[in-house]
Amino acid sequence: MVEPMQTLAGRRPCGRERLWKAPACRSVAVLPFRCPRCGESTRFRSLTALRTHLQFSHTFSTPPVSRAPPISMPPSPEDDRPAFLELHPAPTPLTTAAKAHPPPSPLDHTYGGVSMEAGLQVRLWVALKRAEQQLQSEHAQCPLLLEEQHRLSRQVHSAAMVIASLRQQLATSQHQLKQRESEVLGMQSWLALAAQHEMCSKETLRSFIETLLQRLHVAESCANRRP
């Protein structure tokens, strides 16, 4: 949680007002960490609160504010005296030079590290957003891919059915071819047997004709010998 912002007063309280508001000024001055983007108007008690404020309240496009004067020290117990006892010493050259050239704050390096860490976190968040968008686009393409897969599955199923029918037709054609080959072989064997029977019949008929001719010749010979 981001701690509430504290606002530094621009004037110095006097008298009875200082007596009532001294604890509040001390609590404001105790806060050591200021926002490099908001300036002195925003201070935090810990680096965690400052880091959270930078992460959720500022981006890279937020222009940084100008360097603010150094942190004012809490008022001493001597400042709690009444207003009529307060003395206003004249400013010396040493105090004027110190105000003109304040010493560098030791927290500037801390602010730079916090800003770099916040930048890394923002870059990581941007990379995660890009990955999420890519996943969403791929998830949006999933129905199209599923539809394409179903279409290809239907085409493969149809091709498988066609191949199965062609295989069945090929098996039937092979069976018919084998049956016709067996019929042709049977016809060839029958024709060979018929040719053999025909040759035997011819041979028998020729021998019968020769025997008949011989008998006829013998009969004619006998008839010529008789007176």
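(the above was protein one; protein two follows)
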Amino acid sequence: MSDEYTQTISHWIRTLTKDVYGKYTYNSPVTFLGRWEDKKELITDADGREIVARSRVWVPSDISIGDYLMLGSFSSGDTDPTI
């Protein structure tokens, strides 16, 4: 499968810190090669709720719930991926 890891993916790790508005903050992004496929799919989340996922992503390392992924390369100045 790693032969198919040809797309650059940015990964922001969510911290335990919240900003003045109560939103979690993120570390600067790191990039790696992975596979990103845009495909809507009904999945069950960690709480047992059914949600619609918009993409499937294969990566070489673990991603934690609450982390943020985006297709492409982003700079270290992009510290809030949610805006």
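Reviewer note on protein two: The mean pLDDT is 91.
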